[in-house]
Fold this sequence. Notes:
Layout: H1 2-10, H2 14-23, H3 31-60
Amino acid sequence: MLLLGVFGTIGVYEGAVEAMEQWHLFFEPTIVGTVAGMVEAAVISFVLMYAFAWLYNAFAS
């Protein structure tokens, strides 16, 4: 996401940047938008991995 934020700022990989803007609510090719998109992705990843680990442990025992 960091690379797409940088590339979006300079006008490279516009298709990938547009796709990332559609998928992530806070992502924009600016410094603030890139950081916000990274935080959003980290929170989503944490929640999904926590749920996966909880399910794994529930079925493993």
